[in-house]
């Protein structure tokens, strides 16, 4: 067993985790990433940009107002105000750290417009490659910090608690097999992204199987609003996994949705293709339920396409399509988790020694539905806030020694049976806990998950997926209304008294 000691362990190497790491660079920090450093997770593949009220006609208050509307009554205004007010300063720091955003011919930052934003406020890099540029800059900045150590290709199996229940480290497996690693730390930050891969169709990378949600739940961290999953309306409907995203900016540029040769979104919402994401996603789903294939027509962009949307263009080419002349087959796909580990304005969880930021956390900023391009900004702003809070906490927190740990006994190789059950889980989540939910469907899903547990009592690969799937399903069963990303055909209306939904997982099963 390998053991490392640090002041802070950060699980996740995307925008949230690296912002926190840079803020703590005077401390000994270990950043643990599931894939190769800088390669995995959602940040490097984020196409859409970063929303930020930096334009001359814009203000944090206007940005807040748009965010609150998208959140459908459940956003926490104080946290939204922090996001929009501190966003510009954090963007300037990111630029100082080397991130290059698209600019106008006279050298000013160029702001794009997206659905439900009342101003042009979306920063992009290389058109639709914003996340890749942000990750590149943050990785380069982190590599210059001698106190930050990177442990890559490490699957974090669980958090370690001291005798008082405080988090004092983590343990995981390197390279999916062999060595167990223990990182002993006074503070642990969860910044390990979302849950998209518990769904059959998703835009999320292989890493996003709900690890952070599951390991936090198992130490009884309070979760919040975990029933709210955002389904992006337009993923390219191919056999690829993940499905390539067709950025919302395409619809921002006037791309139109057709099913059976007919434009259908005009019948559903006054803003047609630019209606809120959940409305467009369910509109497409309804056409698919009628047996119709849905297409996005962006041919009007013409020869500008490869320059404006190089990432999408490359995906289309891989699929044998030319977006300059072909309509593109689309499907909704699980894209973002609004809920997560409940945190305060400084990313603190209810568990001593544990912080969370980015998609794994629930600051309440996104409410029931996230506004486009607010996710990278949230990671940036709250990652920085977490670093400040941890630094302040060192004056008072005490490190407790980790008890001797047993080697992880669970086998790490993955069998065909486990893979088949992972696919069954994903299909079940898609069909029963997806865009349109019912009580009977969700109860069926829970039965399927129990059967999967019974067949795989020792599976390290499945345990976090199962726990994340169960958590989302239980929470969705408990919310008896429809709001934002959570739609129940058996409770199709808003409940005017609906509140945030704190959730403590009580499942223990055979996973521990
Ligand atoms: C997109 O480009 O459509 C995705 C951006 C986001 O999820 O905010």
Q: Can you give a write-up of this model?
A:
The chain is an alpha/beta fold. It has three domains: 2-227 and 338-393, FAD/NAD(P)-binding domain; 233-332, Flavocytochrome C3, Chain A, domain 1 (Alpha-Beta Complex), CATH 3.90.700.10; 416-501, Methane Monooxygenase Hydroxylase, Chain G, domain 1. The chain has helices spanning 15-23, 60-70, 77-96, 130-143, 211-218, 248-252, 277-289, 305-308, 310-318, 375-393, 416-432, 439-455, 460-478, and strands at residues 2-11, 29-32, 50-51, 111-112, 122-123, 148-151, 154-161, 167-174, 180-190, 223-224, 229-236, 256-259, 262-263, 294-297, 328-337, 340-342, 354-356, 361-362, 502-503. The strands form four sheets. Strands 1, 2, 6, 7, 8, 9 and 17 form a seven-stranded mixed β-sheet that branches. The longest helix has 20 residues, at 77-96. The radius of gyration is 22 Å and the shape is globular. The structure holds succinic acid.
Radius of gyration: 22 Å
What's the architecture of the largest domain in CATH terms? 3-Layer(bba) Sandwich
Major β-sheet annotation? 7 strands, mixed
Q: List the total number of helices.
A: 13
The first-level CATH class of the largest domain is given as Alpha Beta
Give the N-terminus to C-terminus distance in angstroms.
Answer: 19 Å
How many independent structural domains? 3
The coarse overall form would be: globular
Tell me, rounded to a whole number, the average pLDDT. 93
Query: Ligands bound here?
Result: succinic acid
CATH fold type of the largest domain: FAD/NAD(P)-binding domain
What structural class do helix, strand and pairing data support?
alpha/beta
């Amino acid at each position: 067993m390998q053991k490392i000691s640090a002041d802070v362990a950060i699980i996740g190497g995307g925008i949230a985790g690296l912002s926190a790491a840079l803020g703590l660079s005077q401390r000994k920090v270990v950043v643990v990433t599931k894939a190769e450093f800088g390669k995995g997770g959602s940040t490097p593949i984020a196409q859409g940009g970063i929303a930020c009220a930096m334009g001359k006609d814009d203000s944090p208050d206007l940005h807040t107002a748009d965010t609150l509307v998208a959140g459908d009554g459940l956003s926490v205004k104080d946290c939204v105000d922090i996001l929009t007010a501190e966003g510009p300063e954090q963007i300037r720091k990111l630029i100082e750290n080397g991130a290059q955003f698209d600019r106008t011919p006279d050298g000013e930052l160029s702001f794009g417009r997206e659905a439900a934003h009342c101003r042009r406020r979306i920063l992009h890099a290389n058109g639709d490659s914003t996340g890749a540029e942000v990750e590149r800059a943050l990785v380069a900045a982190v590599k210059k910090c001698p106190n930050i150590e990177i442990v890559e290709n490490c699957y974090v199996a669980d958090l370690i608690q001291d005798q008082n229940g405080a988090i004092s480290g983590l343990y995981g497996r390197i390279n999916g097999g062999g060595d167990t690693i223990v990182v002993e730390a006074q503070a642990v930050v969860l910044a390990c992204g979302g849950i998209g891969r518990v769904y059959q169709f998703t835009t999320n990378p292989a890493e996003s199987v709900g690890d952070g949600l599951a390991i936090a739940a198992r130490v009884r961290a309070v979760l919040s609003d975990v029933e709210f999953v955002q389904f992006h309306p337009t993923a390219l409907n191919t056999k690829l996994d993940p499905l390539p995203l067709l950025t919302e900016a395409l619809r921002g540029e006037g791309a139109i949705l057709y099913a059976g040769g007919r434009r259908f979104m005009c019948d559903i919402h006054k803003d047609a293709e630019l209606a809120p994401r959940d409305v467009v996603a369910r509109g497409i789903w309804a056409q698919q339920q009628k047996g119709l294939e849905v297409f996005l027509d962006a041919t009007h962009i013409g020869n500008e396409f490869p320059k404006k949307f190089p990432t999408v263009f490359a995906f289309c080419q891989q699929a044998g399509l030319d977006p300059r002349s072909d309509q593109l087959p689309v499907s909704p796909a699980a894209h973002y988790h609004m809920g997560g580990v409940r945190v305060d304005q400084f990313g603190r969880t209810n568990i001593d020694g544990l912080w969370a930021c980015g998609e794994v956390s629930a600051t309440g900023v996104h409410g029931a539905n996230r506004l486009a391009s607010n996710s990278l900004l949230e990671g940036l702003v709250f990652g920085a806030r977490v670093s400040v809070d941890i630094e302040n906490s060192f004056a008072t927190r005490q490190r407790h020694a980790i008890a001797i740990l047993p080697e992880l006994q669970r086998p790490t190789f993955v069998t065909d049976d486990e893979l088949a059950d992972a696919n069954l889980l994903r299909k079940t989540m898609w069909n029963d806990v997806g865009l349109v939910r019912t009580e009977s469907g969700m109860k069926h899903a829970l039965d399927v998950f129990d059967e999967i547990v019974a067949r795989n009592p020792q599976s390290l690969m499945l345990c976090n997926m199962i726990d994340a799937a169960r958590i989302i399903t239980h929470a969705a069963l408990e919310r008896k209304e429809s709001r934002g990303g959570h739609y129940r055909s058996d409770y199709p209306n808003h409940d005017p008294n609906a509140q945030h939904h704190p959730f403590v997982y009580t499942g223990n099963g055979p996973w521990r």
